[in-house]
Amino acid sequence: MRVLLDAHDPAVAHVDDGRPAAEEVRAAALQRPLVGGVELDPREAHADDHAVGEPDRAVDDDVVVLGGAFGDRMQPSGVVEKLYADGRHGKKNDRGLYIYQNGKRQGPDPSVYKVLGVRSPKPADANAVVERMLLAMINEAALILDERIVASAPELDLAMIMGTGFPPFRGGLLRYADALGTPYILARLDELSSRHGARFLASAPLRKLAEGDGKFYEAYARR
Which helix (H) or strand (E) holds 100? Predict the structure, then answer.
């Protein structure tokens, strides 16, 4: 859940930055072989039924709990709160970031920009959108391995493939990270954190690994 929410939260925050929801969907679709299924509407973004029934609570319980435990890097975006306040519960009531018909998503709802306070939506770069999601996931995965919540990089990758739909042909999240190179990942996280805050602050284990040009599959090999 920690890794998956690290994909969802930057995606939603990207909309909060004023990027069009339509472009967000397009980006995720184009790069689906990298991120699996990331949905942005409340009912498709791990919002629990109790929270959905109380718009004034407007924040997904999973994010609230993790935000309290893990600090700034998991603070919820204001997008979900604004959607709930406007009565947009996604599939549950056929209102959200998207237009629905009989429970099926038809496309982006342009009226959502007024709800979010976005006057002039900016164009989104598909690669940038997906990179933000992936780098946040890799950063959290480094912490999970360092905390020994998962014993090895291969086991974490197996969980990502079987549990979240990360594409097997990529070898898993951390196999993909090793292909990118940890120095590159660190440099991009440093750049993103300087622009977007603590959500993208590189974790200590990732920074240590990158400074030695290390690889996850070597540093966290199966014992």
Answer: strand 98-101
Element (H, E) at 33: helix 32-35
Smallest Cα–Cα separation from 121: which of 111, 131, 130, 129?
Answer: 111
The two tokens of residue 93 are 């009531």
Cα 131 to Cα 128: distance, rounded to the nearest angstrom? 5
Q: Which amino acid is at 211?
A: E
pTM for the structure as a whole: 0.69
- Residue 97 confidence (pLDDT) above 70: yes
CB 81 within 8 A of CB 58: yes
Specify the residue for token string 């519960």: 89
Per-residue pLDDT reduced to its tens digit, 61-93: 555 566 666 666 666 667 777 888 888 877 778
Instruction: Write the pLDDT tens digit of every residue in 149-186.
Output: 999 999 999 999 998 888 888 899 999 999 999 999 99
Which of 127, 130, 129, 136 is closest to 185 using CA atoms? 136
* Residues 179, 184, 189: CA angle, nearest 5 degrees: 120
What separation in angstroms does the CA of 161 have from each of 30, 69, 119?
A: 19, 26, 39
How many residues make up the chain in this entry?
223
Structural domains of the chain, with CATH: 2-116 (no CATH), 126-219 (1.10.1040.50)
Distance between CA atoms of 97 and 109, rounded to whole angstroms?
A: 6
Helix (H, G, I), strand (E, B) or coil at 116: helix
Residues 6+ apart with CB under 8 A from 65: none
